[in-house]
Amino acid sequence: MAAIKRLLVANRGEIALRVMRTAREMGITVIAVYSEADRNAPHVQYADEAYLLGPAPSNQSYLRGDKILELCKDQQIDAIHPGYGFLSENAAFARQVQDAGIIFVGPSGDSMDLMGDKLSAKQAVKDFGVPLVPGLDEAITDIGQAKAIAQQIGFPVLVKASAGGGGKGMRLVENEEEFEEQMELAVSEAEKAFGNGAVFIEKFVTKPRHIEIQVMGDSHGNVAYLFERECSIQRRHQKVVEEAPSSVLTPELRKRMGEAAVKVCHACNYVNAGTVEFLLDADLNFYFLEMNTRLQVEHPVTEMITGIDLVREQIRVAEGHPLSFSQEDLRINGHSIEVRVYAEDPANNFLPDIGKLEVYRRPQGSGVRVDDGFEEGMEVPIYYDPMLAKLIVHADTREAAMDRMIRAIDEYHIVGVQTTLGFCRFVMGHEAFRSGDFDTNFVKMHFTPALLDRKLSPEEAEVAALVAVMAMQQLQGRQSSSDAYPVQPISAWKLGRR
Questions:
Q1: CATH code of the domain containing 439
Q2: Catalytic residue among 64, 171, 235, 294
Q3: Which of 32, 106, 423, 466 would you call most buried, defined as having the most Cβ atoms within 10 angstroms of its Cβ?
Q4: Are 245 and 171 in the same domain?
């Protein structure tokens, strides 16, 4: 077993801080890397050491695996934790790290390759008896042949990119007449996004719920599942609200899905933390969707209900230790909900909204956790994912957790950019969510921007008015000077919005 003494976190923002905090508790020296846009970011300030990678664009900084490896060699770094995004599921990088004699806190490159391609993943798990969505489990390019298969499966169908993710290269085809056009669009989008135009066809599951199982495996052959997360509240096929456990799974169904997830791990000799994703239909039949070979954004809800620090377990497994728990040790304790606080405008199709965090005040109190990477006064950069924070709550029951989340959202004050907080509060109060009767179509079925219209709180209105007055005074002062030039006044509405 190799003890990790110096850990480089090849990421930024809240996940970099989250990993560093656990590593520091374990007595490990933590090293940050950063781009020019993140020079003063909290994860840089927190680390024991920090090194500049390059300019703001990720392909010149956080995606520069060669620079990261060179840095590890120069600074005698033992291990790399990739977080999520960026290089976390790059099989070639994982192999380069291991070939350099550095510990990669994650699965092997071979496991990533096998699970990273949806078709190869389906082929691998098929032999282990894992349920699959009815459809074609091999790539196809011939439109005529593809249409014939779609007719056999029955419309509606999904055309999906083999190398896809995040909804890219995926098209819903409602009928035969639109099949050719939608398939061509899926292939084109897949080629642009992934450099791979391979697509396959599967039956569209009506009223689907997105249920994922957290798994952890070690190098001694042990694999355990840490129960499920419900991730059905999504926009643009990406999650916004997650909870654990799901409100619809029975103990028997939970066990069957967990055991199926363990089979997926055995199918690819999986070691470290991962997530097996399933679709659950209206009749509670479940089907393998894909495997994410990394830590998930929503991992805190699993930590809250199990008491297991998943990052600590990742590091221990990477050092060569067996899992610190068995399947029989695990119990579900209460209920946890996470909302992703994005700098996005829900009233404008959730488009990213950048700007300065004029006011940034986190909620506090019992059962409330905030994982973030921003401070008041910071600019939200345009170069990266617009997530500001993850707001997580835990309570004894689901109802109490929803009520606690509403309270926490109301205490979370952000002025300067639009955020998804208002949308998430809407979800928490909606009857479909509170009753548990919802699926991945929640946004389409229940949400319109008009439902978010509200007046500013007294505190927000005061801040907005003060900033607007200062801006106008500044404007008047500049325009009265001899060398003044016109400037645009700052919008009080923009600065006062959440």
A1: 3.30.470.20
A2: 294
A3: 106
A4: no
The residues near 239 (Cβ < 8 Å, ≥ 6 apart) are 210, 231, 233, 297, 298, 340
Is there a single domain that holds both residue 278 and residue 420? yes
Q: Catalytic annotation on 312?
A: no
Instruction: Give 121-127's long-range contacts (Cβ < 8 A, gap of 24+).
Output: 121/268, 121/288, 121/290, 121/291, 122/288, 124/267, 124/268, 125/263, 125/264, 125/267, 125/288, 127/267
Tell me, yes or no, whether 180 lies in a domain. Answer: yes
Please report, as a single letter, which amino acid is at residue 69.
L
Q: How far apart are CA 73 and CA 179, in angstroms?
A: 52
Do 260 and 394 fall into the same domain? Answer: yes
CATH number at residue 151: 3.30.1490.20
State the Cα angle at 273 between 267 and 277, rounded to 5°.
60
Same domain flag for 444 and 470: no
Rounded to 10°, the helix 109-116/118-126 angle is 100
The domain total for the chain is: 4
The values of phi and psi at residue 16, to 5°, are -65, -45
pTM for the whole structure: 0.85
Q: What residues are paired with 241 via a beta bridge?
A: 233, 339
Do 85 and 187 fall within a single domain?
no
Q: How far apart are CA 159 and CA 181, in angstroms?
A: 11
pLDDT tens string 270-324:
999 999 999 999 999 999 999 999 999 999 999 999 999 999 999 999 999 999 9
Verify that 250 and 178 share a domain, yes or no.
no
pLDDT tens-digit map of 408-437: 999 999 999 999 999 999 999 999 999 999
- Angle among Cα 283, 288, 293 to the nearest 5 degrees reads 140
- DSSP H helices in 117-178: 118-126, 143-153
Q: How many CB atoms lie within 10 A of CB 166?
A: 10
Of 379, 447, 458, 383, nearest to 413 by C-alpha is 458
